Amino acid sequence: MLSDRARKIKPSPTLAIDSKAKAMKAAGEDVISFGVGEPDFDTPENIKEAAVKAMKDGFTKYTAVGGIDPLKDAIIDKLKADNGLSYKRDEIIASTGAKHSLYNVAQALYGPGDEVIIPAPYWVSYPDQVLLNDAVPVFVETFEADSFRVRAEALEERITAKTKALILNSPSNPTGMIYDRKTLQKIAELALKHNFYIVSDEIYEKLVYDGAEHISVASLGDEVKSKTLLINGLSKSHAMTGWRIGYTAGPAEIVKAMTNIQSQSTSNPTSITQKAAIEALRGPQDFVAAMRTEFDKRRRYLIEELNRIDGMSCLMPEGAFYAFPNTGKLYGKKAGERQIASSADLALYLLEEARVALVHGSAFGADNYIRLSYATSFEDIRRGVERIREAVGRLAA
Ligand SMILES: *Cc1c(COP(=O)(O)O)cnc(C)c1O
Fold this sequence. Notes:
Layout: H1 4-8, H2 13-26, E1 32-33, H3 45-56, H4 69-83, E2 92-95, H5 98-109, E3 115-120, H6 125-131, E4 136-141, H7 152-158, E5 163-169, H8 181-194, E6 197-201, H9 222-225, E7 228-233, E8 246-249, H10 252-263, H11 271-282, H12 286-307, E9 322-323, E10 334-335, E11 338-339, H13 343-354, E12 356-357, E13 359-360, E14 370-373, H14 378-393
Parallel strand pairs: 1-12, 3-4, 3-5, 5-6, 6-7
Antiparallel strand pairs: 2-8, 7-8, 9-14, 10-11, 13-14
Helix pairs in contact: 3-11, 4-11, 5-6, 5-10, 12-14, 13-14
The structure holds pyridoxal-5'-phosphate.
Pyridoxal-5'-phosphate binds at residues 37, 97-99, 123, 169, 173, 201, 203, 233, 235-236, 241, 246.
């Protein structure tokens, strides 16, 4: 009955863990969640007020499909100021969240037989969006020893005549790692040499620590810019996950195709949200710095504590709000009769026995790891990590 397409797709595993944790909470259990992928901060007041004003002004009707010009201009100014990039209005499209932006790119670019290279660990939606468009995800493994940055040689091995695009995510969800200029340059060279697109998901751009620099691959030169679809949004930077607004900057021809696709599916992103997004982009930015400072504090604490747990080790993430500890040494151990053989076993064990929700690494294509979001209160991080330590301590060979 269902289409082949529908049968290929699984629900987002991060949302699945979250809903199980929520069900336990609803049943009265004291579950601490490291599962969520959204800031625990409230959307800043000035942004909410812009939305209220939009409603009161009656700005509640359909708008231009790809977003109103004042929003496109605010995005253009942001890309200039933050990334040194110049785009025109016909190279910008606003969509209903960055996930939707990525989906529009997939619809506009990928087709049957096309190969899309995805470095693993990867964000959960990338492979499924490729599959939904009858293309083939091609994974390339990255390693902790390289801070999970893809090696140019390993990437080159995966390139074929069918390679349509590479999906890059820096700072990365789930690893928290950032691509340096040198690696980006090598990737850009390969994209030009082999003529494929770079889909650059930069949603965590504003969350970088220790003075690290976010570099957009599109800023490395006009040639690579013409092969880059730059994706960004306000969900993570301005705590606006529920508002659903994201955007793409890229070649006019592709943006036009995305706009046509959007015109036949969702039409414009919410009118009220567009007004709020203009305020987010143009208004005061001190909220972003304050949120980053708080995340940074939690990051240092959490990673230090995870590294104190026997059998776990965790790189210091450079950006985003996730810890991605290596838990491979725990596999094969037992709690009573219960054997932990994988990241999924470990995540389920920790949820049921420690009442801590987190995501198994296999969801991101890396079974030797688990992902903990530190977008949760310092107090919960402190209590949660204690529970993990205690539960892991009960595992025996
Ligand atoms: C959260 C997230 C997105 C999607 O954000 P939207 O809420 O759809 O704007 C895209 N990519 C990554 C890696 C994310 O973590």
